[in-house]
Design a protein that fits this description.
Blueprint: H1 3-6, E1 7-8, E2 11-12, H2 21-32, H3 44-48, H4 52-59, H5 63-76, E3 83-87, H6 93-101, E4 106-111, H7 114-123, E5 131-135, E6 150-156, H8 164-177, E7 178-189, H9 196-215, H10 220-236, H11 247-257, E8 261-267, E9 271-277
Parallel strand pairs: 3-4, 3-6, 4-5, 6-7
Antiparallel strand pairs: 1-2, 7-9, 8-9
Helix pairs in contact: 4-10, 5-6, 8-11
């Protein structure tokens, strides 16, 4: 391996996309700027990176509650995991919590967006000896960055963007990198089948949470409008799907991929948390 090309401040980048000084400085400036307009040449997640934390209370108001359950599960696994794969790490907020919870562990964190990884790198400077950040789409050979068997895979609300056939293929690759007896803690946005009166309650709750979060931001409505505009354009262009799988499909596909069981352990009105294990 050519370290001058592949190592970036201690982080391995298998696609050899370098974070030069100008790119990093531009990224930092953009996080302090006003809401940026969608750029047709810019990917959805690259646009989202500087706005991600501001948007989260609007698009995922129960994130911290669900991630708290995820971390409780991770903390309860014995023996304590030493190697973890964070699938779709985004800006690194969950990654940081994992590293704080398990200071002896090493985390391999991958994401398909350079802008997200630049932000994650800034947020994870205290953990440079414990983390490997890698630029890779879920459909890329991201396994190449992993140099040891993985004890636990964590994921939160990224895989639902994949077409269903690609998602099923990813599950088969996840089980191959896990140690026997390894765990997959999987949180994602799903398509729920609910009776109409319950669906109406869920919609009312989501609308109330969203409106409350928008009021807390001076530019909340503008930010959400931009988000919807570039998300819809990306979906129309076929870059990702906006048709999440149903819970029953998730469980069936995980079992089909080789996990000995998969079960839903937590849900709110939008996100469900699953726990699956590879046979010993």
């Amino acid at each position: 391996m050519d370290e001058d090309k592949d190592l970036i401040d201690g982080f391995f980048c298998p696609s050899r996309i370098l974070f030069d000084t100008n790119t990093v400085n531009a990224s930092r400036k953009s996080r302090k700027s006003k809401v940026t307009a969608p750029d047709p040449s810019q990917g959805f997640f690259d646009w989202l990176a500087p706005h991600y934390e501001s948007l989260q209370p609007i698009i995922d108001p129960t994130r911290f509650q669900t991630q708290s359950v995820l971390l409780d599960i991770l903390n309860a696994i014995e023996p304590s995991p030493k190697s973890i794969l964070d699938l779709g790490c985004g800006t690194g907020t969950l990654t940081a919590q994992v590293l704080e919870l398990l200071p002896e562990a090493h985390v391999f964190a991958i994401d398909g967006s350079i802008a997200m990884l630049e932000t994650a790198r800034d947020n994870l400077l205290d953990f440079t000896d414990q983390i490997t950040l890698a630029k890779a789409d879920f459909r890329d050979p991201w396994e190449d960055v992993i140099d040891r068997p993985i004890d636990v895979i964590v994921h939160y609300t990224a895989l639902h963007h994949l077409p269903h056939n690609a998602l099923r293929e990813v599950y088969t690759r996840l089980i191959r990198v896990l140690e026997p007896g390894g765990w997959f803690i999987h949180g994602d946005i799903l398509e729920e089948r609910m009776p109409d009166p319950v669906q109406q309650i869920a919609t009312n709750i989501r609308n109330f949470q969203r409106e409350s979060a928008i009021l807390d931001l001076s530019n909340g409505e503008e930010l959400l409008d931009r988000f919807n505009e570039i998300r819809d354009a990306s979906a129309k262009a076929g870059r990702f799907t906006e048709t999440p799988a149903m819970p029953e499909q998730q469980i069936a596909w995980l079992t089909e991929a080789g996990f000995e069981f998969a079960t839903r352990v937590f849900q709110d009105w939008q996100v469900s948390l699953f726990l699956a294990r590879k046979p010993e």
